[in-house]
Queue: 3 jobs
Job 1
Amino acid sequence: MTDPKPERSSAALRVRALETRLLDIPLVRPHRFSVTTMHTQGVLLIRLVTEDGTVGWGEGVVPGGPWWGGESVEGMAALVERHLAPLVIGQDVLRPEALARRLESMAAGAPFARAGVEMAVWDAAGRALGVPVHQLLGGILRNRLPVTWALGSEAPDVAVEEARRLLAEGRHRSFKLKMGALAVEEDVARVSAIADALDGAAPLSVDLNGAWDEYTARRWLPALAEAGIRMAEQPIPAAHVSGLARLREQVPIALMADESLRTPADALRLAAAHAVDVVAIKIGKSGGLSAVRRIADVAEAAGLGCYGGTAIETSLGTAASAHLFCATAAVSSGTELFGPLLLEDDIVTAPVTYQKGELLLPSGPGFGMTIDEEKVAKYERR
């Protein structure tokens, strides 16, 4: 009697190799945050290969460098190559949740790096089974996502011209303005002028990246609400959850947490404090799809809306977010998955598709993206 052949999932689909490449992709225009300006986007491209030759792709990106969360694509590359790859080699890609927790236990402070590796695992699992990742996540609840466009910290005339053009072209129906780079009075006047010029043509929100203190936010958020701004994202620093809770009681504008939310425990803390109305969920900042699913469960149980954020990914990372967000009921407050539209070029043969202000869910096994090796070679860092 011969021994039965080993199951494909237990042998052939174990990880054989994990490789990284650093890319630099120009933006179509500068993108300004409260403390820095992006002109190119660094991308850590991750290629995972199983014993049977199945390939999965992931990417690690951060918005504008280490100012946001302490990670950089250069640091991520070293971490993945020297520390995370050995944890993944030999592991079964059909156990992405177990792999995600293994990575988290060894590199809790490096969520963007972990997310890139875990993304490649999910992609490989879907490709191995011949199904899209959203089926592995329980199936879709929607097949398209509304996409808010970020206008950055541009001057009023520039921002208004860009918004009007996008509205006229039917490409976007809502906008977010970056704040925090200017003196407070000047910044509020800038945003108010933009809101006045658009005259209710599209919903507007602002993102301060924690640039104000609680007193400043209490003083000026009502002025933004009066100007027509519907929501303020992270007006005060991430650690000031109690301050967010006080602001929520005092100001007539919806509040959204971004930097304050990284882990499921953060979501529970924000919910218990009644600190915000909406939470921004992102694959990168929380360490992968598995962690974001747990965060979304907490938010949904607490009655908080989830907003699908971006770190300005290529079509690969954007597709990963789309699969997750389309399979997650709590994503009820929109998204800003505009990354590929801000990039001058992409790294896939067929980029994600946008239609009338919405992102269409990609089809095909895994995340449904095919890497364009010529584009990768073009943008690879020498």
Job 2
Amino acid sequence: MTDAITNNAIGRTEETPDDQPFFLYLAHTAPHWPLHTHPEDIARYDGVYSNGSDATRTARHETVNDIGLFQRNWDISARDADVHPWTKGKNTDWEARKMATYTAMIDRMDQSIGRLVAELKSIGQFENTLIMFFV
């Protein structure tokens, strides 16, 4: 679906006369249920989350602090009380695959936005374009 939406958007830019402004609302449905994307995208993230969400969250927090991304380091926030620790999970293999698929969906969306940006550049409209991303 992500590819189809992007292909349609690119087609619309090609149809627009060069001397006319245009509005393009690109509303990807990824990443929402159902979780699915290209197998090759999922394969890139195979095993990335096998240590669990707690380990991933901690590693990302440490990286942000280590590289000095912000003016000061901060302590990691407490885990949501409604979320059980990864080690207490019953279906961690499935959860890790679900996280990999979700990430792959975002990756595919990013690739698609990149394709649209390349199209805007090729038709000379990139410098005349406002891009906003909402979540």
Job 3
Amino acid sequence: MTLQAIELPVLRMPYPVRVNPYLPVLHEETETWAREMGMLGSDEAPSARRGIWTLSQFHTMAVDQLTAWALPDASLAGLRLNHRFNLWALAWDDYFASAFKQTGDLVAAQVFTARLHAFLPAEPGARLPQPVNAVERGLADLQQRLFPPRLAHWRQRLNQALARYVDAGVQELANSRAGRVPDVIEYSQFRRESFAAYTAPYSVELATGARIPEQIRHSRTVRALLDAFMDYMGLANDIASYQREVHEEHDVNNLVVVLETSLGITVQEAMRAAADLVTARLRHFEHLIQSELPSLVQRAGLNHDERTELDGWVRGACSFLSGLHAWYSGAPRYAAASDPLPEQRTSTAAVSAGERYPSVS
């Protein structure tokens, strides 16, 4: 079945798209950091200045819009920092795809990834190696910026999440080289790593200034909420990026391919099943917020300030999902997308009838 014969589903998203008011500022300066890190080459050829992208490729990704949609309430400083983080993650992804996935050079990929681990120290102030490429320069720069004192608790866990992210790229390459399609159960956990989803709660905290209170952070309900939050991101991306990953990059690490192989169904059936699974994870996220978090808050005896902070984090997580959904649906990076960009069809405060940000108080 050709791609043109496959009907791409429209995924449900109950939360409104809002746009950070600092988007125009971000748009004006979006090239600056990428140029400083060496991620941008000439517009004639990506390799002319050893860049990862040409200028036209860079603007096609619309990363400034992604950041502003996903983090509508972030300060300008928080928005800039998250924008750089998003740029780095996409730079790693595109560099790894061109340098290793296209060549199938697993050994070189392992060497490259081992060096990246040296830029992810467990302790603050550790001396980093001298960067030798744009990905290393970007990661070294972020290590100096990503850890304000209030979020120091994230240093070790964030770097562990980033290590899992880059390691997952090596595993994806090994799978593709061997023609090994992951099992559907295995893949759901693996996708959280390969999409860098474990870093997303940090982005929400950084953007909102709100933390999940420590009394409930490790509860079953909150763990399940974070799992559903992370699952939606990567699994929804698999649907949006199906053409790019499977037909252009010949990647086997995609939910649609996994379901097609694991369940022995057609591509179109797998696409529908993937959409159903993504919707189920989002509904579970909603259920936990509406039905389980309030009783957990009550049992834990959270005070007013702690409840307010939890509400802020939940609203930030909902915005994060709606922003990602908007990017998947409208950004030129995903060639199959044809809808207008959200900034063209909604105001920064638009809320459709019946759609609200939930409260757990």
